[in-house]
């Protein structure tokens, strides 16, 4: 077991950040923590990287206890905090050299591990980190977190503030790292990234709501979801919320996802209702559930 | 060791790439020493004075000649009535008027007593005081010369100023500025550089790395020890070459004591960084908590002996006070370690206390 968390609770002065969290991550697994801001993701990362002590419960990373074997853990994990944590006034190369040195290794020694990523930023290696774009910063931060060949990699919201193309590339890199046997615990507020993980934990307000593979979670969802659109989208949300048998309504990209209380729901009734409210170009279609739908329903 | 060197190299990158910190490090010592050395001084030179001579005899003329010959005074003009004195002061150019009474020489001969009045413009009390002291000593001097010929009785005061016969203020300012600069550079810069890592979140990574806390702290401190020593050398040599400040004692002892004080200041800086989370707080604590006491309570500008008793007691906990005593003793009096043993011991004790407290307060986790 690469990461094992048993009944962990963490309380700040008057906020219960984590409540009775339990989960396990297999070796070489890409495990996602999915949840909105303030759900307790960062606290969990800090606990597992020995930066915080739990109030209750126990946990181990790479078979080392997070309270008693701090030194061993610090030698064998890579951590990329949510805030961009590299030295802005140092160049790409200097940053990487620095992190290699303090972990007692060199860039050359573990070059094969970071090669795929590093070649993309190498042309700018003499540029200061402060002058890099968001995507390049993340790549550099990932290189720095990987340079000492960690057994477990902790990535706290690595794709926040990164453009869609770089995000996609980033996840492809994670897949390749996984193939090299590194366990990865990654958190993200983006639901669409959840399906790229082996298994995910949906976390909210310090509690884990569900743990499973993304497919299983989606398949287990038994409600029918309708994609609704009309010429006045904002008014549409308000009107749908006033529909007598509505179960949930939320904006989803260019559509509105609508779920009805009744299994025997007739779209015609909804269409008539919306027409009466003055909507035109109404489209109502069945659609398949996504992680976001599941999350919104929890 | 390799890790440690890598860390120090990174610190030097930070220092040399930040124009602001470079300026504080090297611009400030030079600017301060030049400022204090040239502009802010208690000495008087070429002060404009006026003469009101009712006597106009040989004795009064001789004294006027003496005063004219000194570099301190320049006789701006001669006035002829009491009324003119005030209007002269109101014009503002003249800072003092020397008034010789009627029949000055005659009275001196017959009554062995004659008066010279020194009237000063006390809107600037320090200057007025100095002028009156200087004129007194010139006249005293003249009298003494006369007396040796004429054999007088009575008490003759002979004062000798040891270690700084010309009362040069630079002898006071060089040790003072050195203390202020070393305190500022060492304490403020280290506390800022440690809190910057906290603020940028890089401390999180350093904590998770196998780097030990004392390695992080030592790595932070080392570059500043090095730079502070350079600063001390610059200040002492500027004092020596530009202002003629003597170094009468052992230069090695001076170096040793300076390094001790640098370490005291650095440990204070570390202590500050353990209690503050942002660069702003660290800077405020350093400025308010260190700079002001160093300037006001260390005896650098205001003599400690003339402070109210509570202030005198407080001044004892200011490391700068002890360092100023040490530097003055070595540079001016040329004493050896045995004379400044107590002060050295106090600094050493303070350093150990600060380091102890820092270690106790240093967090290896985030809370």
UniProtKB/TrEMBL annotation, chain A:
Residue ranges constituting the ABC transporter domain according to the UniProt record: 3-230
Official protein name in the record: ABC transporter ATP-binding protein
Keywords noted in UniProt: ATP-binding, Nucleotide-binding
SUPFAM superfamilies to which the protein is assigned, alphabetical: P-loop containing nucleoside triphosphate hydrolases
Xref: PANTHER family: ABC TRANSPORTER G FAMILY MEMBER 20 ISOFORM X1, ATP-BINDING CASSETTE, SUB-FAMILY H, MEMBER 1
Pfam families: ABC_tran (PF00005)
Example of a GO MF term: ATP binding
Keyword ATP-binding found: yes
Taxonomic path: Bacteria, Pseudomonadati, Bacteroidota, Flavobacteriia, Flavobacteriales
InterPro entries for the chain: AAA+_ATPase (IPR003593), ABC_transporter-like_ATP-bd (IPR003439), ABC_transporter-like_CS (IPR017871), P-loop_NTPase (IPR027417)
Entry keyword annotation includes Transferase: no
From TrEMBL, chain B:
Keyword Acetylation assigned: no
InterPro entries in the record: ABC-2_transporter_component (IPR051449), ABC2_TM (IPR013525), ABC2_TM_bact-type (IPR047817), ABC_2_transport (IPR000412)
Positions of transmembrane segments: 21-40, 170-194, 221-243, 249-272, 284-305, 339-359
UniProt membrane topology term: Multi-pass membrane protein
Pfam families, per the entry: ABC2_membrane_3
Cell compartments where the protein resides: Cell membrane
Name of the featured protein: Transport permease protein
Organism of provenance: Flavobacterium luminosum
């Amino acid at each position: 077991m690469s990461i094992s968390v048993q009944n962990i609770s963490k309380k700040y002065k008057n906020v219960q950040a984590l409540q009775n969290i339990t989960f396990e991550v297999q070796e070489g697994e890409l495990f996602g923590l999915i949840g909105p801001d303030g759900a307790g993701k960062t606290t969990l990362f800090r606990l597992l990287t020995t930066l915080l002590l739990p109030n209750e419960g126990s946990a181990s990373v790479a078979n080392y206890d997070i309270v008693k074997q701090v030194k061993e853990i610090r030698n064998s994990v890579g951590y990329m905090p949510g805030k961009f944590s590299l030295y802005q006034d140092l160049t790409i190369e200097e940053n990487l050299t620095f992190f290699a040195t303090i972990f007692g290794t060199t860039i050359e020694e573990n070059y094969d591990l970071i090669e795929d990523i590093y070649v993309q930023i190498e042309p700018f290696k003499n540029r200061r980190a402060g002058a890099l774009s968001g995507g390049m910063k993340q790549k550099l931060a990932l290189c720095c977190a990987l340079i000492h060949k960690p057994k477990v990699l902790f990535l706290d919201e690595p794709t926040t503030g990164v453009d869609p193309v770089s995000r996609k590339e980033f996840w492809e890199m994670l897949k390749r790292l996984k193939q090299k046997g590194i366990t990865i615990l990654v958190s993200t507020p983006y639901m669409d990234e959840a399906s790229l993980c082996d298994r995910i934990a949906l976390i909210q307000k310090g509690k884990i709501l569900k743990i499973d593979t993304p497919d299983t979670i989606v398949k287990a969802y038994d409600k029918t979801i309708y994609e609704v659109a009309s010429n006045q989208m904002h008014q549409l949300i308000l009107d749908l919320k006033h529909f007598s048998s509505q179960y949930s309504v939320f904006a989803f990209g260019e559509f509105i996802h609508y779920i009805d209380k009744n299994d025997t729901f007739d779209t015609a009734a909804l269409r008539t209702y919306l027409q009466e409210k003055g909507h035109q170009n109404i489209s109502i279609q069945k659609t398949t559930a996504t992680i976001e739908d599941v999350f919104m329903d929890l | 060791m390799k890790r440690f060197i890598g860390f120090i190299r990174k610190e030097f990158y930070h220092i040399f790439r930040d124009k602001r910190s470079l300026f504080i490090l090297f611009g400030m010592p030079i600017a301060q020493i030049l400022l204090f050395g040239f502009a802010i001084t208690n000495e008087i030179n070429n002060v404009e004075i006026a003469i009101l001579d009712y006597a106009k005899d040989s004795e009064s003329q001789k004294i006027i000649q003496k005063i004219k010959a000194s570099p301190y005074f320049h006789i701006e003009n001669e006035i002829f009535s009491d009324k003119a004195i005030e209007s002269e002061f109101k014009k503002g150019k003249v800072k003092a008027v020397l008034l010789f009474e009627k029949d000055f020489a005659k009275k001196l001969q017959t009554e062995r007593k004659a008066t010279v009045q020194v009237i000063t413009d006390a809107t600037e009390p320090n200057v007025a005081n100095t002028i009156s002291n200087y004129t007194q000593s010139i006249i005293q001097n003249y009298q003494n010369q006369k007396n040796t010929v004429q054999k007088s009785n009575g008490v003759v005061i002979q004062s000798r100023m040891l270690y700084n016969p010309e009362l040069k203020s630079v002898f006071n300012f060089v040790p003072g500025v050195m203390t202020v600069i070393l305190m500022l550079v060492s304490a403020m810069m280290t506390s800022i550089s440690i809190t910057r890592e906290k603020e940028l979140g890089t401390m999180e990574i350093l904590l998770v790395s196998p780097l030990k806390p004392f390695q992080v702290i030592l790595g932070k401190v080392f570059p500043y020890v090095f730079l502070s020593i350079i600063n001390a050398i610059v200040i002492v040599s500027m004092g020596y070459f530009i202002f003629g400040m003597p170094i009468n004692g052992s230069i090695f002892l001076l170096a040793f004591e300076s390094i001790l004080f640098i370490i005291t200041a650095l440990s204070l800086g570390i202590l500050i960084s353990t209690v503050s989370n942002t660069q702003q707080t660290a800077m405020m604590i350093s400025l308010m908590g260190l700079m002001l006491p160093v300037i006001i309570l260390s005896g650098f500008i205001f003599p400690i002996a003339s402070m109210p008793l509570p202030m005198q007691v407080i001044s004892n906990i200011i490391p700068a006070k002890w360092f100023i005593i040490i530097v003055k003793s070595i540079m001016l009096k040329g004493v050896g370690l045995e004379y400044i043993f107590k002060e050295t011991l106090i600094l050493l004790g303070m350093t150990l206390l600060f380091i102890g407290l820092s270690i106790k307060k240093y967090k290896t986790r985030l809370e």
